[in-house]
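pinned: reference chain
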Amino acid sequence: MQPIFATQTASISELKNNPSALIKQSDGESIAILNHNKPVAYLVSSDVFERMMEAMDDMALSQTVNARMNDGQTPIKVTLDDL
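pinned: its structure tokens
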């Protein structure tokens, strides 16, 4: 059994036949694209994709900050005015 992380589903055939209608019908919600009843892709709006990319960038930056804070060196305090 495989979880589906969307409230709506569509087959690859539906996506091929009329992608614009499928996107319009989704009303901004994510769609799980199924092949033989198994999810093979997710169709998300550009807004959702951009937010996902920003969140991933934030997570990567947070990991860099944490690694640098724990590298054993004495931190240097800087104010925004110093920058």
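why pinned: The longest helix spans residues 46-69. The first strand starts at residue 8 and ends at 11.
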